[in-house]
Amino acid sequence: MAAEKVLCIADLEKAASQILPAATRDFFNSGATSQVTVRENSSSYQKYRILPRVLKDVSQVSTKISLFDRDISFPLCVSPAGLQAMAHPDGELATSRACAKAGTNMGISSYANHSVEQITTAGKEIGPIHHVMQLYSMADREKEARIVRRAEAAGCKAIFLTADSPVLGVRYNEWRTGFLPSPGLDNPIIEKTSEQIQQQSHDDGFSSFNSASHSWAKEIPWLRSITDMEIWIKGILTPEDVETAIEYGCDGVIISNHGGRQLDETPATVDVLPACAKAARGRIRIHIDGGVRSGSDIFKALALGAECCWVGRPMLWGLAYNGQQGVELMLDILYQDFKRSMQLAGCKSISEISQSSLGIFRSDGPLARL
Ligand SMILES: Cc1cc2nc3c(=O)[nH]c(=O)nc-3n(C[C@H](O)[C@H](O)[C@H](O)COP(=O)(O)O)c2cc1C
Ligand SMILES: O=C(O)C(=O)c1ccccc1
Fold first, then answer.
1. Which of 104, 215, 241, 272 sits at 20 to 30 Å (Cα–Cα) from 163?
2. Which domains does the chain have, with CATH numbers?
3. pTM for this model (two decimals)
4. Is 0.90 exceeded by the ipTM?
């Protein structure tokens, strides 16, 4: 762990990036092709300004929201990200413990370096926590079904079906450095050893287990027939797909572009959020990830119609910086910052955060009301 003060997520990114080997750092931090979307995911939050209401009693604020029938401490959860043992040997176990300690929920990647049972147990030993299981449509349906059944038996509350990855994105940075997962780090959820994963990465990339012939009709009714868990779609960017998710009876969507790692030059998630939330009309849960790096980003996402935000890279940076404690630090930074943003904006409960709390800069004009 480095000695400098880590006060914000940018500090954490810097500290972690100094610790990580260059190829791993680039694998974590990069996006696809020209890196347009990975950058814009964060910078697009800067279009918005918060309009505070003053002289309001904010001595007691509640930052809690209810998710999977339990309150979480604030509207932020940790996105599923693969290969967390590349950041710290404890990998997903540390993330699960940190989420439990902070009172929030965790997404488990199909490419986790620990089993779903180990990850859920590690968190539950610390405190109440819910997990969701991230899933790809797979060519091997039997294996996909085994993943779902084990996740359900381990207590996961939902499947997050990642819909944006029929094939892998174009990752120049990863390919330049020849990134490969370290030997000895297995992927038990997809039932692969590190050697098999290395071979696969060489041959045709991680996504070769995914099914490029997936479809709503093939996946959703089948998933519904094999599990009672909630079904969420991760990787939605259009109101049309929100509508389709509703038609298929899905429980929620994550507005996501995979942190800019799949199709580059898709819009920043915060830029499509208002239209997606409007299309949902309360019929399906709308969450968002991509570029969330501060309490005011969370505040803005909620004002624009999201129920909850998720973060990927900040968790990886926390892990690399100091394992479980690093992820706890990341979650605490965002919690304190979000709570303070609410107080300074004059909101004492989540339901008071609305579009009227925001102004926007449009095409170099003056600040406009939304
Ligand atoms: C290193 C890395 C690995 C990831 N692995 C997965 C994965 O296995 N499955 C998945 O659905 N998303 C994966 N994601 C995407 C995240 O779930 C999430 O959508 C994204 O990181 C959010 O953007 P942010 O990193 O800017 O917060 C990964 C992201 C990163 C950075
Ligand atoms: O790199 C990614 O974005 C990703 O989704 C992934 C998939 C498999 C293993 C590691 C990461």
1. 104
2. 9-354 (3.20.20.70)
3. 0.97
4. yes
